[in-house]
Write a structure and sequence with these properties.
77% of the residues lie in helices and 0% in strands. By secondary structure, it is mostly helical. It is elongated.
Length: 128
């Protein structure tokens, strides 16, 4: 077995971040505290492996599950609901902006075609 590398530790914390349904101030503090604890453990046990970290601090999924289970249920539901509302609002704004842009492009193109058709680009002069 080989000792744990920094890339393995980064991957461990990246998995935890990906599994968190919300990521705010409290979650940043939680992950920073966990990083400090893992770093302290690695300093105390320099030859530890990734399996040792998992045995001591659990799998990323279990860490997230235990963190979420420790939160107040009402506050968690409220934060998740707020996040969904913000996502929906952003999606609606983007769709409205794209629709507005498409209508403006269409109107400009229609104006261009009308102008092109009304422009006299040649005159026929008949001399008698």
């Amino acid at each position: 077995m080989h000792k744990i590398s920094q890339t393995e530790l980064k991957q461990y914390f990246k998995q935890i971040k990906l599994l968190l349904p919300i990521y705010g101030k409290e979650e940043k503090v939680f992950i920073n505290d966990l990083k400090k604890a893992v770093d302290a453990y690695v300093e105390e046990h320099p030859d530890c492996t990734y399996a040792d970290i998992l045995e001591r601090f659990e799998e990323p999924a279990e860490v997230v599950y235990n963190y979420i289970a420790s939160l107040d249920q009402h506050a968690l539901c409220k934060r998740i609901s707020l996040r969904k509302t913000i996502k929906r609002a952003i999606i609606i704004v983007v769709i409205a902006a794209v629709a507005t842009f498409a209508v403006r492009i269409f109107l400009h193109y229609a104006s261009y075609i009308e102008g092109k058709e009304s422009y006299i680009n040649r005159e026929v002069i008949i001399i008698r």
